[in-house]
């Protein structure tokens, strides 16, 4: 499956055609859009439409050194998540921006504060002056900014606040923080409500036992690699989760993860009913039953970006819970057939009703015309013209009844 790169069809056509590489590449060579899917290469588009490579493993600081008009090309999957190597550079650059206090204030309690709306807009504009991606990727960029903003605050809190006397914290303003933002931030951290919330979050984090083993490689990139290795076939949710929780040697990160996968595979085999291609809904139900219900705003095991509403096509309140997961393939098929039948009957009823209305309209018009014609014939003492029945080739005279509004009359 080819990912999303361009905003418009014109841009797609521009870069789908072969474009000349930079002078540092071999003369006469050319590239097309397929190379943008390379997981290990980062490409930069120039104002004149040509492309050039970035060096291997570039840093976020190198983004600032791009020439005017140059943009790093970022490929997205169908969910709007970056899935090539440029994803790491995009994420690192976004994280670097939020660490700049003058550009992104940190003394607010939540990232969705209205005061931060113009800040986000400016940050996105800064990013899009350096990166080129399909407009669908903007949601991922916003999520990345939120995640980086929270992570930065967590880092500062752990390094400069936790376990230290309040006055000492206030007196020692970190060099990486704007002085005007430090005191309000410390006061916020020191509120009893925030302290309790922080303790709860820390306790929940310690309960995490299933660790992602991909390192810097995002789940979207791993998913793309698995599709490339399997002729474009998308791995199901359990297969993807299994691959992202194993070490390089093929062993699981810990016994707890291994136990979960054994349980999930057993349930999946039972629910599949011998089918070679297991319906996605069955896989999702098994996943939720084994791993637990979803949390608001994210989809477990799918990484940053996918939202429950987009992934399931329903709101969080309608997510299946453990009691609703006890469903097999046969029941799902029956439910699907029932839905199709209901839709078919509904469409059929609508079509029949429309046909009846049209037929009724035509009949009324015919009756009106015949009535007018009858009156005209009577006035001029003339017999009605011969006409044909709709279903009979035999002619009929005006003496025959033509419809509910036409009275049979004796000829004069």
**What average pLDDT do the residues reach?**
76
Estimate the helix proportion, in percent: 40-55%
Q: What Rg, in angstroms, do the CA atoms define?
A: 34 Å
Report the oligomer: single chain
Count of runs of 4 or more consecutive helical residues: 13
Residue runs with pLDDT of under 50 for 5 or more positions: 6-33, 315-329, 390-412
Cα distance, first to last residue? 82 Å
Strand content: under 5%
E-strand count: 8
Indicate the overall shape: extended
**Sheet with most strands: strand arrangement:** 4-3-5-6
Largest sheet: 4 strands, mixed
What does it look like?
The chain is mostly helical. The chain is built from 13 helices and eight strands. Helix 2 crosses helix 4 and helix 10 packs antiparallel against helix 11.
Q: Layout of SSEs?
A:
Blueprint: H1 9-16, E1 19-20, E2 30-31, E3 43-45, E4 51-53, E5 71-73, H2 86-98, H3 117-128, E6 131-132, H4 138-160, H5 166-171, H6 179-189, H7 192-206, H8 219-229, H9 237-243, H10 255-272, H11 280-291, H12 308-312, H13 329-379, E7 387-388, E8 395-396
Parallel strand pairs: 5-6
Antiparallel strand pairs: 1-2, 3-4, 3-5, 7-8
Helix pairs in contact: 2-4, 10-11
Q: What is the gist of this entry?
A:
The protein is 47% helix and 5% strand.
Attribute tags:
412 residues; mainly alpha; four-stranded mixed beta sheet; disordered C terminus
């Amino acid at each position: 499956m080819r990912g999303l790169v361009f905003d418009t069809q014109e841009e797609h056509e521009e870069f789908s055609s072969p474009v000349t590489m930079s002078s540092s590449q071999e003369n006469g060579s050319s590239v097309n859009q397929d190379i943008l899917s390379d997981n290990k290469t980062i490409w930069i588009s120039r104002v004149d439409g040509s492309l050039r490579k970035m060096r291997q493993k570039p840093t976020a600081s190198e983004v600032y050194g791009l020439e005017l008009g140059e943009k790093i090309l970022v490929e997205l999957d169908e969910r709007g998540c970056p899935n090539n190597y440029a994803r790491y550079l995009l994420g690192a650059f976004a994280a670097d921006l939020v660490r700049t206090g003058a550009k992104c204030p940190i003394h607010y309690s939540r990232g969705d504060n209205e005061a931060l709306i113009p800040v986000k807009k400016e940050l996105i504009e800064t990013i899009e002056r350096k990166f080129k991606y399909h407009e669908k990727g903007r949601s991922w960029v916003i999520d990345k900014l939120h995640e980086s903003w929270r992570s930065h605050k967590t880092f500062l809190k752990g390094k400069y606040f936790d376990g230290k006397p309040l006055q000492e914290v206030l007196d020692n303003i970190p060099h990486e923080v704007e002085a005007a933002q430090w005191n309000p931030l410390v006061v916020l951290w020191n509120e009893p409500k925030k302290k309790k919330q922080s303790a709860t979050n820390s306790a929940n984090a310690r309960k995490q036992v299933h660790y992602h083993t991909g390192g810097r490689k995002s789940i979207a990139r791993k998913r793309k690699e698995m599709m490339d290795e399997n002729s474009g076939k998308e791995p199901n949710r359990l297969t993807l989760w299994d691959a992202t929780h194993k070490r390089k040697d093929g062993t699981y990160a810990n016994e707890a993860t291994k136990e979960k996968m054994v349980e999930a595979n057993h349930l999946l085999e039972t629910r599949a009913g011998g089918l070679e291609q297991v319906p996605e809904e069955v896989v999702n139900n098994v996943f939720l039953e084994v791993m637990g219900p979803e949390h608001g705003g994210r989809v477990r095991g799918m990484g940053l970006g996918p939202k429950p509403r987009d992934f399931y096509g329903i709101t969080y309140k309608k997510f299946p819970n453990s009691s609703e997961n006890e469903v097999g393939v046969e029941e799902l098929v029956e439910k699907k057939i029932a839905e199709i039948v209901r839709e078919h009957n509904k469409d059929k009823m609508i079509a029949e009703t429309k046909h009846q209305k049209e037929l009724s309209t035509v009949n009324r018009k015919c009756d009106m015309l015949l009535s007018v014609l009858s009156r005209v014939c009577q006035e001029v003492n003339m017999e009605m013209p011969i006409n044909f029945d709709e279903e009979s080739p035999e002619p009929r005279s005006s003496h025959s009844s033509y419809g509910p509004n036409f009275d049979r009359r004796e000829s004069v």
